[in-house]
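Hi there, hope your week has been kind to you so far. No rush at all, and the record is pasted right below.
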Amino acid sequence: CCRCHFPGCPSPGCPAMPIPPHSSHSHDFIGEFATSYRELSRAQSQFTVYEVLNPRKKCKKKKYVNSGTVTLLSFSVESEFTFVDYIRGMPSQPTSLHYASPYQLSAYALALKAVGEIIQDYDSDKLFPAYGFGAKLPPDGKISHQFPLNNNADNPSCAGIEGVLESYLQSLRTVQLYGPTNFAPIINQVAGAAAQVTDGSQYHVLLIITDGVISDMLQTKEAIVTASALPMSIIIVGVGPAEFEAMEELDGDEVRVSSRGRYAERDIVQFVPFRDYVDDSGNQVLSMARLAKDVLAEIPEQLLSYMKTRDIKPRRADPK
């Protein structure tokens, strides 16, 4: 008896070479055979017999035929779920933090709407680059940690928070949520944009909504330390029941974030757990207003700290 395993390989030339044990007390090589995913899938409706060949015996013995046969009795394809699948759930399942019923937005969408609708008033063009991270993208299933929600790499900007929400909901229908969850790539991307204009005329605010499962803590700390010298702030909203010790560590209120002996130039991270703002009375408007207030509480001071350390004065309005 043997079992063939193809880890995510549906290609026609994916070889299978099972080596069945000679007996219960040894693991001598008996022989091998080659097949493919496509061939196996075609044979699932009927028994298929494969000759098991031993290359050494075949070369030494002229009358050698085979070392036995393997009969395929059945064939099935099974999904191998990851840790992330179980803690997040599929977006279509009510247990998922991304699930939106016809009557209520998901936790992710509520947090995005509550914070975004306030902060968008401080943006002149109301165009927001929006990215997802931790997902497999079609058509090849490649894992990405910074993909545009609107599926437009050349222009990832969405029109207003409603546009961001629309792109977010649309992306849930096309991507497969997948780990690991890495923050550093998107932080570095925004930092790259912030580094282009450092004269005080632009200030970037990165909003990250996450379930708290972070996989690249060291790289994220490094990215935050680097970003602390740039005109940008980072808001992290944690959704779901996870313990957010890792997120608290990134919020530099008590201890400044450090990496490889370097400390953040200033505190640029604000973290809040979404669950602290879920009103049991059902007053969603009030609870989301409290969330927005606390999330944005540190942004003015963070902006001022950047301007002061670089002696940047406010620009006078053009006379009309």
Notes: Residues 1-19 have pLDDT under 50 and may be disordered. The CA atoms of residues 194 and 231 lie 6 Å apart. The first strand starts at residue 48 and ends at 51. The two ends are 86 Å apart (CA to CA).
